[in-house]
Amino acid sequence: MNLKTIKIIKINMKKIIILFLVLIFIIGCKVEEPVTISEETKEKVMGMKALLIIAQNNFRDEELAEPKAILESAGIEVQVASITTGVAKGMLGMEVTPDLAVKDADTADYDAIVVIGGAGSPELANHKEVLELLVDAESKGKIIGSICMGPTVLAKAGILKGKKCTVFSAGADAVKAGGADYTGEDVVVDGKLVTATGPEVAKAFGKKLVEVMGG
User: Is this structure's pTM higher than 0.90?
Assistant: First the structure.
C-alpha cells in the first residue's frame, strides 16, 4: 500500500467519524414541543395587558423573550418597563428599549405584573417604585409573576408571606426570609402568584401565566 493510498484512507476515515458524530448529535437532540394555548383560554385573555419588569442591566434574555412571545401569541398586550427608558441590556447580549419607566406605570392599566429574572434582577429591589408597584398590584388583586432571581424582589416587597413559590436556587434563602413557602419546583402557582426557577422553564412559565390570566 503506497503513501497516497494511506492518506486517502485517513481522510475518508475522518469524514466517516465526523458524519458519525453528527448523526449521534442529531439523534440525541430532542425536538422541543411548541407551546399550545387552548382557543378557550385565548378568548378569555384577548385584550388583557401585562407589564414585564426587567433590570436595566443583566436581565435574562430568554426569560423576557419567551414569556413575552407566548403572552402576545395568546392576544395579550405586553409592555416592558425598567428603571429608566434607556436601553436595557441582557446577560446574553439582548438589548431592549423599555416602553416606560417603572415610576410611570399604573397598576390599574394591567392585568398582570411580572418581574423577569437574571443576575441583575435583585437590584430592582433597591428601587422604591418597583416595590410600591408590586404592593399596589397585590392589593388590587392583580396577577403577579416572577422567574429566576425575580422572586427575591417580591420577597423584599413583602408579598410572598405565606405563599407557595419557587426561585432560582441561589435565591431560596431570600424568599424563605420573606415568609414564603419555598417548594423548589420548576413552576409554582399559588392563587394569582406564578413563580418559576429559571430560563430552562421560561416557556412553561409563560404558558402558566396565560392560563392563570385566563383563570
Answer: no
